[in-house]
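Quiz preparation item.
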């Protein structure tokens, strides 16, 4: 198991390599709505065959000891570099052309 932090340490991540899962644990229930939105967005992107992080197939998020917990499929790869800028541009164009979700709203802009 490897451990890491995301963002401004609002969540901790644990990689479970034996099953190819990343477990994200938020610090407090103040982040519950964020966890729900992240899972909703991941399902929407998957429904649109968009190449993005995928949730692990369990009901989530879970409330574990007063902390929102989500489960994600591990993505192996390499750090990006300058050669990836054109690819990123194409992916962003595709994202902006994706039909908006119908089960939740995205922020404006």
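Solution:
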């Amino acid at each position: 198991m490897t451990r890491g932090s995301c963002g401004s340490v609002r969540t901790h991540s644990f990689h479970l390599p034996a099953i190819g899962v990343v477990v994200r644990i938020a610090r407090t229930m103040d982040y519950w709505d964020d966890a729900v939105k992240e899972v909703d967005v991941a399902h929407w992107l998957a429904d649109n065959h968009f190449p993005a992080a995928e949730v692990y197939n369990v009901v989530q998020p879970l409330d574990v000891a007063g902390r929102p917990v989500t489960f994600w499929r591990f993505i192996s790869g390499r750090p990006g570099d300058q050669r990836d800028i054109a690819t990123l541009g194409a992916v962003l164009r595709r994202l902006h052309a994706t039909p908006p979700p119908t089960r939740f709203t995205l922020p404006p802009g």
